[in-house]
Structure formats: C-alpha cells, structure tokens
Amino acid sequence: MKIDWEPLRPILEEGEKFILTSHVRPDADALGSELGLAAILEDAGKSVAIVNPSAAPGHLDFLDADGVVHKLGETIDANRVEDADVHIVIDTSAWTQLGDLGTILRRTSAKKVVIDHHVSSDDIGAVEFKDVSAEASGVLVVELADALGFELPKRAAVPLFAAIATDTGWFRFPSTKPSTYETIARLVALGARPEYVYRMLYERKSVGRLRLAGRVLGRIEFAADGRIAYTWVTQADFKDLGAQQADTEDLVNECLTLDGTEAAFIAIEQENGSIKVSLRSRTGLNVAAVAEKFGGGGHRQAAGTVLPGPVDAAVKKALAALLEAVDQKA
Q1: What residues form DSSP beta bridges with 70?
Q2: Mean pLDDT for all residues in the chain
Q3: What digits encode the pLDDT tens for the residues 111-145?
Q4: For the chain, what is the radius of gyration of the CA atoms?
Q5: How deeply is 308 buried, as exposed, middle or buried, from its count of CB atoms within 10 A (0-12, 13-18, 19+)?
Q6: Does 1 score more than 70 pLDDT?
Q7: Pair type for strands 127-130 and 111-116
C-alpha cells in the first residue's frame, strides 16, 4: 500500500531542528535510511542530528565516514535530543527497539514521525508513514523525496543503496520488485558502486568472525523433522574466539540454506545477560507473530525479540513457540 506523503510536507516545512533515530543495534537499512534522509533535509536547509540508542557495528563504518551518527549518552546528551522541533523514527515503531531514546520520546514536546516498513508496531504518539509491503526503509526515503519534490543528494547514494541491498538480501528476497531495481539504478547513477558496497559489507571479515561462524554453525540443532534449525551464541564464545556482537550477523540465514529447513532462529547472549533471538522463515510461516508473543516483532519472514537468560532457557522458549507455529501451519 503506497504511502500518502502529503501530511509530512508541513511538518518538514515548519520544522527547523530535526532528530533522526532508529532501533538498537542499527543495521544497514536503519543507518543508511537515516543518513539518506539527513542528507535530504540538510540540503533543504534543516539542522539535523542522527542519534541512536546504540552504536552501529564496525562493518558499517564506511556508511558514516564523517562520524555524524551519535550514540545517546556518549557523543550527545539527552538535552540536545529533546531540543528539537521534529523527531523522526526510522525503520521501527516499537518501544522496545528504542532503548533509552524511548524515554526521551515519551517526554519530548517535539513533533513525532515514524517512517517504517515493519508489521509490528506500537503507538508511540507519532504521525505514521508506514508501508509493510516496502522492501526496505531506504526505499521509503526515496519515495518521500520523490513525493515531496526533494532532490536526492549524491552523498545519499551509497547509504541508501546499502539500505536496500541488505534488506532485500542483495535482491534475492521475495520483497524485491521491478521497482526495486529502478530505484537501485537511480542510486548507481548518483554514484553508488555495487562492488564497493558489497566489498565493504561482506569482504572485511575478521578471523574472530570466521571462527565464530564455525563454532556456531557447528552446533546447529534441528526440530520438526528438520523443518526448524537453530543455534546459539554465548558471551564465552565471543571471548574465546575474539569475536564481536556484530559478527553474528547473517548466521541465522545460513541455517535457512539447509535443504528442507523452513524456519530458523539464533539465540545470542548479550552482555547484560538477556538473550536476543533472531527468527527467519522462507515459507508462509509468520515469524513476526512468534516474536510478538515475547514483545518483539518485525516482518513475516524476519523478526526478533529479547528474552531473559540463561541461554538454554531462552532457546527452549523460542523453540516451543516456533514449533507451535509450525504445527499450526501444517
């Protein structure tokens, strides 16, 4: 369903100071969409700050070469965030995904806007511009620019390309449409180089990341006659192998490469003892509904939530919920 962007026009025209925010552990779609929208607004003469509840993973550093993305409490304080006319939340509309920035959003008098493509949603008191059929939030930023007459700056090309390429699985997910390639062609014409973006995203792995992949994939277990595959990561794994939290990215997708597997999840122990669970599906199974049972959410085929530890207890909970969903679908 296409978005009517006209209600956003007066908000952008009247606002002068903007804060752009996305979810904890921002991925390339979140970060790229923020940077793309920031470039558009800055070219329109607006003051813009990008402030996230957690730092971006190291492999996305090339998107923010100038270091303009802030982490709340480190390079920018709450007072600066509250002192805004408009606060735009991109690539999420869930309180649990906003971390400490959620506290600021609850009390700020700034106008709140959500730009998102996820199914799961909370009422955060914002004007929502949401299209759950959109393949990436980066696509929505391009649509916004086109609908409201903004030019796409050249410096937005790489971040938006990365946003769309990653959230479509490099154009292999079912969400990819003919229009996706048209948008990508425009970004390439603006200066995005696919070979450069791919290399920066996927060909700078550390030894720790490769060793972690070997250990985690080596412990994959199965359920429902192989229809479900799952694995887990502990803090001890990170320490033993010299790996980082970001090194778990895409490991859950490897589980879906197994013949006969319909759904998968990975449980990752966080530093605070909580367990991040990422769920994936390559059938009609709605893993967002599974995640929502635990206060999480996402897309039908890619979702996540956070469970209390320890790891083995979280794995049992996630597996039971996924087994129930698989049984209902059968």
Answers
A1: 51
A2: 93
A3: 999 999 988 778 889 999 999 999 999 999 999 99
A4: 19
A5: exposed
A6: no
A7: parallel
Select from 1.10.287.130, 3.90.1640.10, 1.10.287.3510, 3.40.50.10790 the CATH code of 8-201.
3.90.1640.10
Element (H, E) at 265: strand 263-269
Of the candidates 330, 239, 9, 271, the one whose C-alpha atom is nearest the C-alpha of residue 145 is 9
- The DSSP letter of residue 57 is P
Per-residue pLDDT tens for 152-169? 999 999 999 999 999 999
Q: What gap in Å lies between CA 60 and CA 159, rounded to an integer?
A: 10
Q: Please give the single-letter amino acid code of residue 269.
A: E
Measured CA to CA, the distance from residue 159 to residue 163 in angstroms comes to 6
Lookup result for tokens 């048209």: 182
CA distances from 130 to 116, 139, 164, 185, 210 (A): 5, 12, 16, 24, 37
Q: Are the C-beta atoms of residues 167 and 135 closer than 8 Å to each other?
A: yes
Cα separation values, 17 from 103, 106, 112, 229, Å = 19, 18, 12, 47
Say which residue the tokens 């006209």 belong to: 6
Model's pTM, two decimal places? 0.85
> Residue 257: how many CB atoms within 10 A of its CB?
10
Whether omega before 310 lies within 30 degrees of 0, making that bond cis, reads: yes
Distance in angstroms (rounded) separating the CA atoms of residues 16 and 260: 53
* CATH tag, 207-329: 3.10.310.30
Q: Where are the domains of the chain?
A: 8-201, 207-329
Q: What is the Cα–Cα distance from 41 to 19, expressed in whole angstroms?
A: 11
Q: Encoding tokens for residue 134?
A: 């959109």
